[in-house]
Protein: Sigma-70 family RNA polymerase sigma factor
Organism: Stutzerimonas zhaodongensis
Amino acid sequence: MATEGVVRQHQLVHRLYVDHQGWLNGWFRRQLGCTQKAADLAQDTFVRLLAKGNGLDAIHEPRAYLHTIARGLLINHWRRKQIEQAYLDVIALQPEAVAPSPEEQALVIETLMQVDAMLARLPAKVRQAFLLSQLHGMTYATIAIELGVSERMIKKYMAQAMLHCLTLLEDE
């Protein structure tokens, strides 16, 4: 019985693929200007549908639904490109002898993506306080002035950020 549900979901995804893959691929191509990356992201969109499992038969506006998924993938793509470029800019400033291997670069970029995703889940002021403390070495008093809140609030923000980091480490 569960197998019938899986078969039904695969049929729905196949139908959506047949009906909308060309449109979706074209949309990505216009956004990116790259045929190969457009095809990759279009495929990723349908992989997300497969991973979703149940509920696909409740989609009444397939293009709007696909566009929502595609937009999220595109935002993730652009964000990754920004992070990669920032990292590559830093590497370019290093002497060639200390430059990491391509494998090490890929690992660092993946880690940076995970950190970015973690930070994105924090409330804005908590994230800002955490970054000012950890990246800029600012004191809590200075951060409080910068953010226009009390030093006590900065301590709460930092505790919240640290707790968030710890829960993420436990989830791994």
